[in-house]
Amino acid sequence: MRIDDGPGTSGSNVRSNSRQLPAPAQAMLDVMNRLEGNVALVTGGSRGIGAAVALRLAEDGADVVLTYQNSAERAAEVVERIQAAGRRAHALQADSAVPEALTAAVDEAATVFGRLDILVNNAGVFLVGPLETLGPAEIDRTLAVNVRAPFAASQAAARHMDRGGRIISIGSNVADRAPFPGLALYSMSKTALVGMTKGLARELGPRGITANLVHPGPTDTDTNPADGPNAGMIAGFTAVGRYAEAAEIAATIAHLASPESAYVTGASIHVDGGFTA
Ligand SMILES: NC(=O)c1ccc[n+]([C@@H]2O[C@H](COP(=O)([O-])OP(=O)(O)OC[C@H]3O[C@@H](n4cnc5c(N)ncnc54)[C@H](OP(=O)(O)O)[C@@H]3O)[C@@H](O)[C@H]2O)c1
C-alpha cells in the first residue's frame, strides 16, 4: 500500500481503476504510474545521466521539462521519446551558469504543465587538472554550474512546490573520495551539495518537501565514457569492477522522487558500485 505524503500530494490514481488485477501485475502497474500527475524538471536533460533521468521519470508517469545548454537536437530527441511513451515533455534552453536564465526556466517549467513536483539538479561541468591549471575562470564556471545553479534552482522550485515536493541533486562519488590527483575543484563543488541538501531538508521538511543527494559512481556518458583512456583504472576503483549505465543512476533518483521516499530527506546516497566502500 502506498503511503501518501498527505494533503496536496499528487500521485498514482490508477489503483482504484484496477483492483481486479493479480497482485504482481498491480505492483508493476503501481511502479509504472507512481509519478502520474507529477511534473518534473531535470536540468541538463539532453544527454547522459540527465536524459536517463528524464526518460525514467516519464516511464514512472511524470510529465517532464528538461533544460539543456547546447544540445538542442539531443534535447528534442529526449522530448520525442517521452511523448512517444504517452507523457508530456518540453525542452528549454537555459545555461545553468546564468541564474536569471535558470530561475526563468524553473518558473516556466512550473507553468507549462501547471505545477512542479520534482526538481533534479543534474547539469554539471567536470573541470579537472593539476592545481596550477585551474584558474579563476575554471573555478567560477565550476562553482556557477555545480553549486550556485542547484542552490538557485532549488530556491526557485521550492516557491512552486506543494507537499510531496522532491529536490534531488546529483553529486559525485569523488565528493567523498578523490582517488587520483586533479579533482580538488570538482570534488569541492560536489561536496558543497552535501551541506546544501541538509540545509534544504531542514528548511523544507515542515512543508513536506524532501531534499536528497545522489552520488553516482563512474557512469558511461559523453563526459566519462566507459571506453575512455582512463576507464579501466577508474572502473578498478569500484567494488563491482565496471561503469554504471546512466539508467542505473536514474533508478535511484526515480525511487527518491516517488511517494515511497517521503521519509528520506537530507540524505546522500551513493550509487557508485562500491567506489567509496
Ligand atoms: N558520468 C559520470 O561518471 C558522473 C559521475 C559522478 C557524477 N556525475 C554528475 O552527473 C551529472 C551529469 O553528468 P553526465 O556524465 O551525464 O554529463 P554529460 O553526459 O556531459 O551531460 C551533461 C548534461 O548537462 C548539461 N549541461 C552542462 N552544462 C550546462 C549548463 N551550464 N547549463 C545547462 N545544461 C548544462 C548538458 O547540456 P548540453 O547537452 O546542452 O551540453 C548535458 O545535458 C553531472 O552533475 C556530473 O557531475 C557524473
Walkthrough of the structure:
This protein is 40% helix and 13% strand. Strand 1, helix 2 and strand 2 form a beta-alpha-beta unit. Helix 2 packs parallel to helix 3. The chain has a single domain, classed as Rossmann fold (3-Layer(aba) Sandwich). The protein has eight helices and seven strands. The chain is globular and about 60 Å long. It is of the alpha/beta class and 277 residues long. The protein starts with 22 loop residues before the first helix and ends in a 6-residue tail after the last strand. The N terminus is likely disordered.
Give a topology summary.
Blueprint: H1 23-32, E1 39-42, H2 48-59, E2 63-68, H3 72-84, E3 89-93, H4 99-112, E4 118-121, H5 136-158, E5 166-170, H6 184-204, E6 210-216, H7 231-236, H8 246-257, E7 268-271
Parallel strand pairs: 1-2, 1-4, 2-3, 4-5, 5-6, 6-7
NADP nicotinamide-adenine-dinucleotide phosphate is lined by residues 43-44, 46-50, 67-71, 74, 95-97, 122-126, 145, 170, 172-173, 216, 218-219, 221-224.
Characteristic key phrases:
binds NADP nicotinamide-adenine-dinucleotide phosphate, disordered N terminus, single chain, 40% helix, Rossmann fold, alpha/beta, 7-stranded parallel sheet, 277 residues
Return the CATH topology: Rossmann fold
Helix run count:
8
Q: Please report which band the strand proportion falls in: under 5%, 5-15%, 15-25%, 25-35%, 35-45% or over 45%.
A: 5-15%
Instruction: Count all strands and give the number.
Output: 7
What's the CATH superfamily, by name?
NAD(P)-binding Rossmann-like Domain
Count of discrete domains: 1
Instruction: Tell me what the CATH architecture is.
Output: 3-Layer(aba) Sandwich
Overall helicity: 40-55%
Distance between the termini: 33 Å
